[in-house]
Amino acid sequence: MKEPFVLTAAVAILLAAGPGSALRSGERQDPAALDGTAAPSVTVPFDMDHSRMFVDVEFVRSDGTVRKARAWMDTGNEALVLQEALARDLGCEFSMGEKQPWARLPRAPGLRLNGWPLDPAGVPAIVLQGPRMRPGLLAEAQLPASLIRRYHVVFDYPARRLTLAKPGLLKPRGVPIPCRVNPETGLFLIEAVVDGETVPLGVDNGSSYTWVSDSLTGALKERHPDWPAAVGAVGAANFFGFDFETAGMLMRLPELRIGPLSAPGVGILGLDQSLFDWYSKKSAGTVRGFIGANVLKGFRLEIDFPNRTTYWEAAPSADPFDLDIVGLTLRPETDGGYAVAGVAVKDGRPAVEGIRPGDRLVRVDSTDAAGASMGKIVDALRGTPGTTRTLVIERGGERIVVKAKTMRFA
User: In the prediction, which pLDDT does 164 show?
Assistant: First the structure.
C-alpha cells in the first residue's frame, strides 16, 4: 500500500492563506489602479532560473516611498509572499509564533510593475520567517495568481517579456483555449490530451516542471511498458526536494496536446493523486496535475482572466534532453546550502554510487553550492549522457569526492 500524501511544513505554508481567505474589510487599494489614471498596460522583461519566472517589482511603503525587490511569478499560488526582511523594511505589522514560521498580514502592501500600480484588493499576504523567502530562490517575494486575476496577461516566453493589461485592451494572438478560473485565488485550468485521454490540468508557471497524478503515469506505463522511466525527481522536475519527490515516476510523453497544438517530448513526474486533490481545492476545479514551465517555455501564452480564455502561440519546443543529468534529488536548505533528498533509480539501480540521502552537496565541478540558486546547481549537474561530474559532498563533518556520470532519465 502506498503511503498517504502528507503535507510538509513548506507545502503547508503554500496553503496557509487558503482558498476563500481573501480580505473582506480594511483593504487598501492604490487609487491610480482604480480611477483609470494609470497607463492601460505595462510590459517588463523577466529572467528565468530553474525554469521559474522572475521580475523586478516596486513595493510602496505607507509614506509613499518605493522599495524595489526581485519577485517570483507563480500562478500556482494564491497568496502574496514576502521574505521577512522585506516585510520589516516595508513597515508591515506582523508577529511570528514560536511554532509557526509564517505570519498573515492584515492587508497586502501596495506594489507596482515598472511604475504601473497593481490592484492588491482581496489578495491575501503572508510573511515567511528567516533570511530567505524560499530556499534555492534568489528572490524576496512571490507574486500570486490572485494579484493578476483581473487583467489580461501575456507570458511571452520566447521574448522573455511579461505584459499586464486592463481588460479589453489587447488584441489576442494565438489559438484560443477556454479555461476555468477560480475567481478568488486566480488559479486556472485547461483540458489537455495525454495519450488520447482528456485530462484537466492546472497551468502553473511557478512550477519548474509538469507534475501529474500517479494514476496517469501508472496507466501510461501499463499501456507503454517500453517508454523509458525512472524514479526520483531530477533536473527541473526537482521542485524543492520535498520527501515525496524522491518517489515520483519520471516519464516522457511523445506529445501533450493543447487544443490543436502539440507540445512534443514533454517530461512529466507522476506523484500521488492526493497532492492534486489538495491543489484542486485552490484551483478552479478538480485537476490531475499541472502544466509546468518545461511546457510553457515552448509557447507565448496569454490569459484573459475576465473572459476565461487562454491563447497559445507555439514557439521553438522546449529542450527534449532536459533530463540528461546526474541523478540526484536535491533539497535547498534555509542556510543557503543543498542536501541530497534522494538518489534517483534507473533500470532498478541507484543512478549515483557513493552518495546517500542526507549528504550535503558542497560543489559540482567548479560550482560552489552554498548561496547558489537552484537553477545554477541543477544546470551544473547537466550534461550529455556519460559525462563525468566531480561532486564534493559532506557527511558527518568529512568531505568526500564522488565521480558521478550523467545519464538520460526519460
Answer: 98
Which whole number is the average pLDDT over 341-349? 97
| pLDDT for the residue 77 | 97
CA atoms within 13 A on the CB side of 47: 9
CATH code for the domain defined by 10-165: 2.40.70.10
Going by pLDDT thresholds of 50, 70 and 90, the confidence category of residue 99 is: confident
- Report the distance separating Cα 68 and Cα 15, nearest Å: 26
Report which DSSP code applies to 327.
-
pLDDT band at residue 37 under the 50/70/90 scheme: low
Q: Give the residue, 276 or 98, on which the prediction is more confident.
A: 276
pTM, 2 dp? 0.91
With contact defined as beta carbons under 8 Å apart, do 406 and 384 qualify?
A: yes
What is the Cα gyration radius of the chain?
21
- Domain 324-408 CATH class label: mainly beta
Is the fold of 175-314 the same as that of 324-408?
no
φ, ψ at 294 (rounded to 5°)? -65, -25
Compare 325 and 316 and report the one with higher pLDDT: 325
Phi, psi of 125, deg, nearest 5: -135, 140
Side-chain half-sphere CA neighbours of 219 within 13 A: 10
**CB-based burial label for 169 (10 Å; 0-12, 13-18, 19+):** exposed
Question: Do 237 and 323 form a contact (C-beta atoms < 8 A)?
Answer: yes
- CATH architecture of the domain 175-314 equals Beta Barrel (2.40)
Q: What is the pLDDT of residue 32?
A: 45
DSSP SS3 for 380? helix
- Cβ count within 10 A of residue 379: 18
Residue 42, beta-bridge partner list:
164
| Cα(327)–Cα(343) distance, integer angstroms | 6
* pLDDT tens for each residue of 376-409: 999 999 999 999 999 999 999 999 999 999 999 9
Helices (H), 51-209: 84-89
Where are any strands of DSSP class E within 225-326? 229-231, 249-258, 261-271, 289-291, 299-304, 309-314, 324-325
- All structural domains of the chain with their residue ranges: 10-165, 175-314, 324-408
- Looking at the DSSP bridge assignments, the partners of residue 367 are 364
